[in-house]
């Protein structure tokens, strides 16, 4: 099957958080064809934050164009927000059900989105107004050195979307396992076959 960019709809358990992620599937990257910095990435991290939060990172190729937060429209005001010691990445969570859908370091803006033109699934029901409003990251915002960062938790992609199967991603070794449990800058090289110590599949 030829890889193509598809819209994946997801959200938290109670439905207060809803998003669309544009992601290329079947996943094109493996150990023999690793992603470049500007390409999408799928990863598991063994740091205590990501491990305890159960994060399965889906990082879009273009954070400003490939991710739309449909609800709420201001994650910084309306979602719970956890910051680690470096206070760079916002680990957002739903204040009602506690599910963590996304992490970002980006400033955002609310834009009008034409759901029909983007071939989005039925994201808000047949009576939804057109255009639909959505929050997106502002290109170039975030860390001056590392750029705009958006990561979606793969566990929160809605079930029943034929193109997306987390079993396939793991079994076909499309998941890159990162070692950030070690001291910063001293972690082991990433690998594709098995998680590092303190990590998980």
From TrEMBL:
CENP-V/GFA domain location, by residue? 8-136
An example of a GO molecular function for this protein is: metal ion binding
Keywords per UniProt: Metal-binding, Zinc
Q: Which PROSITE patterns match?
A: CENP_V_GFA
Q: Does the keyword Zinc apply?
A: yes
Quote the InterPro entries the UniProt record gives: CENP-V-like (IPR052355), CENP-V/GFA (IPR006913), Mss4-like_sf (IPR011057)
* Top-level taxon of the source organism: Eukaryota
Q: Which family does it belong to?
A: Belongs to the Gfa family.
Which named protein is this? CENP-V/GFA domain-containing protein
Identify the taxonomic lineage of the organism of origin.
Answer: Eukaryota, Fungi, Dikarya, Ascomycota, Pezizomycotina
């Amino acid at each position: 099957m030829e890889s193509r960019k598809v819209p994946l709809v997801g959200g938290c358990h109670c439905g207060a958080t809803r998003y669309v992620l544009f992601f290329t599937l079947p996943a094109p990257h493996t150990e023999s064809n690793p992603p470049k910095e500007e390409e999408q990435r799928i990863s598991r991290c063994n740091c205590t934050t990501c491990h305890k939060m159960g994060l399965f990172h889906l990082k879009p190729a273009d954070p400003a164009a490939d991710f739309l937060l449909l609800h709420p429209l201001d994650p910084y005001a309306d979602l719970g927000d956890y910051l680690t010691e470096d206070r760079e990445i916002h680990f957002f969570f739903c204040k009602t059900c506690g599910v963590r859908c996304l992490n970002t370091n980006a400033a955002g803006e609310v834009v009008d989105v034409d759901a029909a033109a983007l071939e989005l699934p039925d994201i808000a029901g047949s009576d939804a107004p057109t255009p639909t409003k959505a929050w997106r990251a502002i290109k170039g915002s975030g860390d001056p050195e590392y750029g705009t960062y958006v990561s979606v938790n793969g566990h929160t992609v809605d079930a029943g979307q034929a193109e997306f199967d987390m079993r396939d991603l793991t079994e076909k070794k499309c998941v890159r396992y990162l070692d950030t449990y070690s001291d910063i800058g001293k972690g082991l090289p990433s690998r594709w076959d098995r998680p590092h110590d303190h990590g998980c599949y």
